[in-house]
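Question (not urgent): is this output format expected?
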Amino acid sequence: MIKVGIVGGTGYTGVELLRLLAAHPQVQLTAITSRKEDGMPVADMFPSLRGHVDLAFATPEKAKLAECDVVFFATPHGVAMAQARELLAAGVKVIDLAADFRLKDPAEFEKWYAMPHSCTDLLEEAVYGLPEVNREAIRKARLIGLPGCYPTSMQLGFAPLLAQGKPLVNEASLIADCKSGVSGAGRKAEVHTLLAEAADNFKAYGVKGHRHLPETTQGLQAIAGGRKVGLTFVPHLVPMIRGIHSTLYATILPEARDTDFQSLYENHFKGEKFVDVMPAGSHPETRSVRASNKLRIAIHRPGGGDLLVILVVEDNLVKGAAGQGVQCMNIMFGIDETAGLMHIPVLP
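Got this back:
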């Protein structure tokens, strides 16, 4: 059994980790931390876990995280980098769901997250936890920086186009028009996520620059073999609890007009258990992936022209966060990658 600890288990990604790991056939939930809720049974805060999780929250000092095999950080940015070095020295693998180990350039991290990076020596070692792109590196890793929810949808949506030996689309002007449910903002109390503010409303935000942009560009350029990629990313907040719908646009180059893009995507993701390339002309819905680790993609070429439209849906809390973390853990420990993750999406 894999002994698992969770730091910061009181947020939405924390409770998703608990939901997934409690049902994982090869996991023993060993510790979960919260300074504020020290001593409170997890099931008192999250009644959905009654009968499934018997742990109580504890401070990090009491939790004995160094006795775990792997520790997940479901915490605000800046927490994991303060504790990662000590855990790694104790032989514990670390999976961070925040941004501490996503960006390779510490100056970029400080620019977008308004804090200096406190363990830059670990950035080179950290592996970006996108299994469909970095599976072999994840297999050997002891430190994972998990992708953000938006970046997961954008990178997997564009990946088949960029992973070819030569450009198929204008890589300097990719566009991502993305929408997320309010749970993407976390469980903290903020005015813009109040029911009276978010319901019956739809708005863009972060148009000038969103912190997921440098992470996504870094990943896309890596997929493209180092070629420079230009991306315009516009996120939106929609009045639903969970889910991401990303509509991606790419202009097909003249020399690639005869490409069968449907087959390109199907072949690229052939064998991937958590990426579903849907039949041509499909329109995936966010509810078709709710509470699952599945990401669905559909390819469109309106009017048979030179604009390619890629539709991507995922659950921001599962494939966009906790589920992807469990997927990485499975790979790191050499067990079935799908273990604990084959939940059927919830309808309605």
